Amino acid sequence: MSHEGGKHRHFTLIVVPDGGQESKSYRISYRRVRFLAGALGLLTLMLAVMAGSWWYLAARVARVGDVTALETQLEQMLADSVRVQDLAEQLAEIERQYEAIRGLFAASAAEVPSEVWLPPASGSVRLASEVRRTLGPTLPDVWPLTQPGFVTRGLIDDELGEHPGIDIAVPTDSYVRASGGGTVVDVGDDDVYGRFVVIQHPDGYSSLYGHASMTLVVLGQQVRQREVIAVSGSTGHSTAPHLHFEILLDGQVVDPLTMVSQP
Length: 263
What we know:
By secondary structure, the protein is of the alpha+beta class.
């Protein structure tokens, strides 16, 4: 360090290179050093401010991104909640339908009416004949099953199609009984009705019972009301166990539900 006229102080930097090369000296005044120090401090402060601003903006952007993501997640959760509620309602409806169907296949003894008459054994022909003579033919006004069943299709007779009777869903091998007393005028196997029975009743009425797994009467046989004439099945043009039940008056279709009542 040296002085010039005692007024301006300065630094002298001497640089001595390796290898014996000539040394060099640099003179820097105090004023310039202070200026460079101030400029360096100002630059450092500016860099710090800029870094802080960048960090603040980055944090804001991150928060905005987080809010957007949260809003998206909330919308998705609300949509999922709506779907879950819809599925819950559908499940409840399916369970109600399942209970109704399960009731068909788990009928208790209390559901079977007491007025059920089974075909007699071969040794009881005389007793059966006496019972039949006592009762005689009657109109078809009794439910044709020993259990309520479930009506899956009603009478249809319009431009959209024809279905001359009702379909009653019941388990396979349920008792099918005569809706009224009369004479068996047709019994056999048909492509559409499967195994079937037709009974002639008084006053021009007749009844048909289709899709049976087995018939228990023969042509010309006299049957009484509520006598078991077949067991249900899914023969013929059928997709599930059920009874197809028809009533006719002088050959014209009658809605069975106007004559019989479901238990």
